[in-house]
Amino acid sequence: MTTASDPSYPAHWEADVVLRDGGTARIRPITTEDAGRLVSFYEQVSDESKYYRFFAPYPRLSARDVHRFTHHDYVDRVGLAATIGEEFIATVRYDRIGPDGRPASAPADEAEVAFLVQDAHQGRGVASALLEHIGAVARERGIRRFAAEVLPANNKMIKVFKDAGYEQKRSFEDGSVHLTLDLEPTAESLAVQRAREQRAEARSVQRLLTPRSVAVIGVSRSGVGVGAAALRNLRDSGFRGHLYAVNEAVTTDLLDGVRAYPALAGVEAPVDLAVIAVPAERVPEAVAACGEHGVQGLVVLSAGYGESGAAGLERQRELVRQVRSYGMRLIGPNAYGVINTAPEVGLNASLTPAPAPIRGRIGLFTQSGAIGISLLSALLRRGEGLSSFVSAGNRADVSGNDILQYWYEDEATDVALMYLETLGNPRKFTRLARRTAAVKPVVVARGGRHTPAGHVVPGTRLPDATVSALLRQAGVIRVGTVTELVDVGLLLASQPLPAGPRVAILGNSESLGVLTYDACLAQGLRPGTPQDLTTAATPEDFRTALRAALASAESDAVIVTVIPWVNEQEPQDDLADALRDAVAAYPGKPVAVVHVELAELVDALSPAGLTAAPATGPLPARPRPTDEDEGGYARPDVRIPAYPAAERAVRAVAEAVRYGQWRRANADAGQVPEYEDIDEAGAAARLAALLAGVGDGVLTLSEPDAAALLAHYGIRVLPTLPAPTADAAVRAARSLGYPVALKTTAPHLRHRADLGGVRLDLGGEADLRRSYEELTDLLGTPDELLPVVQAMVPRGVDTVVRSVIDPAAGAVLSFGLAGVASELLGDTAHRLVPATDRDAAGLIRSIRTAPLLFGWRGSDPVDTAALEELLLRLSRLVDDHPEVVGVTLEPVVVATEGLSVLSAAVRVAHPPARTDLGPRTLPSY
Q1: Partner residues linked to 150 by β-bridges
Q2: How many Cβ atoms are within 10 Å of 367's Cβ, its own excluded?
Q3: How would you label 509-541 residue by residue, b for 16+ Cβ within 10 Å and e otherwise?
Q4: In what order do the strands lie in the sheet containing 720-722?
Q5: Which of 520, 638, 689, 916 is most buried (most C-beta within 10 Å)?
Q6: Which residues is 92 bridged to in the sheet?
């Protein structure tokens, strides 16, 4: 018998998943304790679905059936259930079979698979999610193919198999369709899995942001407190749906003008979203009421969770488990709330009082409520609006990744602004950010760069500049402050992307123009000579000069500098109209304004100052850029961002320039090459054997084990032979063949040729014995030095190749030259894993000492193609096997033809419960 508490129970197969309609379900192994649930589930399945499953009328399960379907060995026979609450909504099962179709054990690598989905839950994508998970389980157990028998009329199940993306064969035998699926993941199956993930997660966020009815639980009768504030903001924002207040002590029909109930169960209509604002100890009761009522999602404003210590963190874990058990999603706890300015919704389920943000095309996500307040205030002051706002607090469930999934396809959002303290699942974040950045800008300000001791935000082992470079590789615009987040967002939301770095500068102040010119140079832009219109310039002068600058083929962007007129006779509205007229005539280039104490001009140039763009009603859709229009977007409304300092305007323009360059360069993102000699299955088996019996720590492999693992991916490490004595060194050299190198491997001397621990080009026994004696006389005994002998390789450039799993950035591939360049000067470049061929080529060319690889000062160029291949093979190893947490290849000697890996260090560990490599799943606690 196997129960959930049995040591053999595979708890790591448990997972929460988002379904096609945005709801959630839990997938877990079926145990012997599930007999009653299985019978109840089967009773709720229609006769037609039972017929499709068993190919005959099968009204009820026999006791033998129940025993067979609940008793598994989790190797040759496995059953999984999708559950909501404690009830089954679907099951899947596989049985390993041999070539004759009869039950078998390993090494048989084929299994029969069958599904059954409750009729009420068909069409929600449950079977597709179960197929992903049962496929991952099967691969883990050495099964490579699934066989399925399906009746021809069972079109839904045939479609599940057909759409999975696996290689498959189909035949018609004895009145049924026989399907065989190869379970090896393919590019198509991975694309299908991620497309389903995107649609499901986007839909789950959409349900939270577009409710037709909202209940606020915890509204005080006195009108004070968090719940009352949330209710007022919902009411005053003009929410278009039904609004309810819940307070167990209510004695009137209305609270603050809103229909009130003592319990949620008293609301006879459906409730889509519940805002919970009760003390933490009462939240479970409120969640249970919401789940029983069929609420789709929650915003929990209550504090006292993960931010308050270990007890609060456990309370938060239990909250997530409870919420998901009802198939709901959660924003929070300790959230500030959500806003959706769409006119058909008008949702302000947050603590932001009136005036609420106006409509705009910026999406804003924050983890911190305080930062959310700051950003909302800054956008309001600048007259800019929002499409949506989510402040997720402790983001125990819905995270920035979910919001990116939603914004990716949200036509009302043109720019994504995010304040993040952590990246959560870094590999997934960079994947989603890269995809989103290909169609709209993603601007990120990160807190937690320097993590205080005991802080809940996990730190990074990488320098901040390195993290920025990695995010930029994914197309993310990384900024340092929330002020810069707003500055860059305003420009990107209102201006087209610049086609290049050339900047025209014009204005009525020579000094301000020079400051702007210097700031452009500091940002790597190419400014033209500032055009001084003099302090006597009129709005018409500005109009004429701006039109000329925009029409010129010598500029890609324009910065206008403005100081107040001495006589104060020129209305600032007239200047705003003049600038807008010029931009409307030549809309293909971005324009930014630098002003000195001209608040009225800022208002006149902002969206709030436009009569053509009201705060409510439909906003014009932002068309996607085309190949013919590299400059970006054309806008029917004319908005120009204004900045109180030249440096801020220039920084925003520079970020737009760099983002535009990334967009153009990544039109072809490159490919992750396939190498026929890679043995992924062999590497997986070796890792499983190495980690057998290893606990939660990290295991550093011996040199032979490291070399054997790397060999599965075509990476050959030059063998070394130990030399504990001079005679042993001579025997090793005879085995390898002269000439040889004699090296110490003691930690304090490893890779330190400058300390005399390496002797090269030893051509015979006499040279070897003399060098051995010199080393031991100079540096210590053989037991201290741990000398080894290695064959000589062609001379070249010594380099270092590394890969590491960083807690903030994910899997990272690094490259630099060996020695002083990388160790002392930090001349190391990084790319995210998996790296494409374009990434590998850019990686070796992005270090400052790269000219040494390409024939600097008359030297011979080395084999960079072989170096790129090595980088790509290592990237594949780390990407395919999350057990590999660190690899160092040092030195890698790159010669004019080929390269040699002289030493390798590999660290492995059991993979984390949450990765971005397996079947889609929500973060787990």
Answers
A1: 177
A2: 26
A3: beebbebbbebbeebebebbebbbbeeebbbeb
A4: 720-722, 787-791, 740-744, 758-762
A5: 520
A6: 80, 115
Q: Is 908 within 8 Å of 885 (Cβ atoms)?
A: yes
Distance CA 874, CA 881 (A): 11
Which is higher by pLDDT, 5 or 227? 227
For residue 846, the SS3 value is coil
Q: CA torsion sign, 58 to 64 to 66 to 70?
A: negative
Q: What is the DSSP secondary structure assignment for residue 422, as one 8-state letter?
A: -
Give CA–CA dist 300/317, Å, rounded.
14
Amino acid letter for position 77: R
pTM: 0.84
Determine the Cα–Cα distance for residues 461 and 909; give it in Å rounded to an integer: 18
Identify the CA nearest to 117 among candidates 162, 193, 33, 50.
50
Phi, psi for 634 (deg, rounded to 5)? -105, 135
- pLDDT on residue 516: 97
pLDDT digits (tens, 9 = 90+) for 78-115: 999 999 988 999 999 999 999 999 999 989 999 999 99
CA 866/CA 856 separation, integer angstroms: 19
Neighbours of 40 (CB within 10 A): 13
Cis ω before 724 (30° cut-off from 0):
no
Whether the Cβ atoms of residue 358 and residue 615 lie closer than 8 Å to each other: yes
Model confidence pLDDT, tens digit, residues 142-190: 999 999 999 998 888 888 888 888 888 888 877 889 999 999 888 788 8
Q: Which residues neighbour 410 within 8 Å (Cβ) at sequence distance 6 or greater?
A: 202, 363, 387, 388
**Packing angle between helix 680-691 and helix 864-880, nearest 10 degrees?**
60
pLDDT tops 80 at residue 308: yes
CA–CA dist 900, 895 (Å, integer): 8
What is the identity of the amino acid at 399? S
Residues near 318 by Cβ (< 8 Å), separated by ≥ 6?
A: 284
Per the CB < 8 A criterion, the answer to whether 274 and 286 are in contact is yes
Query: What is the pLDDT averaged over residues 209-216?
Result: 97
Q: Mind listing the pLDDT tens digit for each residue in 673-712?
A: 889 999 998 999 999 899 988 888 899 999 999 999 999 9
Q: Which residues contact 380 (CB under 8 A, 6 or more apart)?
A: 355, 357
Which residues, 6 or more positions from 680, have their beta carbon under 8 angstroms from its beta carbon?
712, 880, 881
CA of residue 886 relative to chain centroid, distance: 21
